[in-house]
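Sanity check

After download, print the first record. It should look like this:
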Amino acid sequence: MKTFIFLSSEGSTYQPGSTSIDPDTENLQVIGFSEGNTARDALKYLVTQNDYLSETNFDEV
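Expected structure tokens:
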């Protein structure tokens, strides 16, 4: 089996004390790590083992 890391680019970061409505930095957020023979298998396993993932607002992983 291979280990996969799942990321989402749906995120941004604001500097502490920022008053701008525009984010300061685009970033990647780690969704999780999982194992499987393929990325698709690993993602399915990740979601079944972490029910909270189905309640997030991420559209793309």
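If your output differs, re-run the checksum step. Summary of this record's structure: Residues 1-8+26-61 form one domain.
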